[in-house]
Amino acid sequence: MDTQLFLTFREVAKWQNFSRAAEALGYAQSSVTAHIQNLENKFQVELFERRGRKIRLTPAGEQLLRYADQVLALLEEAKACLAESAHIPATTTIGTVESLAAFYLPPYVQTFRRQYPETKLLLRPGICSDLRQGVKEGSYDFAIILDELQTHPDLEIIPLQEEELVLIAPPDHRLACAERVLPQDLAGETLIVTESGCSYRTMMENVLRDTDTVLETSLEFGSLEAIKQCVAYGLGIAHLPRIAVQEEVDKGALSVLPFEHPDIRVFRQLVYHKKKWIPRAVHHFFQLLLADADQNGAAAV
Fold this sequence. Notes:
about 300 residues; alpha/beta; Arc Repressor Mutant, subunit A; D-Maltodextrin-Binding Protein, domain 2; 3 domains; five-stranded mixed beta sheet; three-stranded antiparallel beta sheet; 11 helices; about 45% helix; about 20% strand; globular
């Protein structure tokens, strides 16, 4: 059977929409429809319930999706194994968040490239929930996320180290000299936040809501550099990983407010699929991360 039928089926199941699946695959919608009809004819079952423009998997479709995931995962594993045995240069796709891509991973990537120059590393940024889903679906070979400690039945998730978060403000901010800053002290402030779905943004918003702290407004940017620049110009405050702001703090462009909260804790975590075959080169990259985590102290709950 043509495995492309399974790829099309999985995309339609993901989007629950034929036109969205066609757009993602780069196919005409008629081709996507033909692929699904081909599968339904082969298995003599109806895979989707069609209600106007909305569709959803039938029980038979849900069962086939599980098998399709296994078949496609095995195919990818076979390709990777054969490529490694034949010494064919391969590309490893790593999903991660912007702060780790920019301020945590570069030294490891540099070391890895010296040791495995034939293997290309591709860093793709995203939010943590999408990264975990991407690993599950095979969009990423593995991911390094920044989130509260996670578990998943299909994924191996290894805590590496707790990441320090800091509340930054311009040096002349009214709270810069405070001994301690509580959530309520932020009332009336402008909070400059990362994109929706970011783990530590969600945690901060939950704490502010639980303490009935009302902000003046909030600004959202998808770029850490834009957030830091806005804070430095006095447009608001922001809550970010320390590694992303340490250089500006050292130069005096930003100040760190004495704020912390027990409900706001995030950890660097290595995520890969439990059933995915790990090439020797990728396994070595894992060891680089784990060795450094052991040296600096493993993540503590």
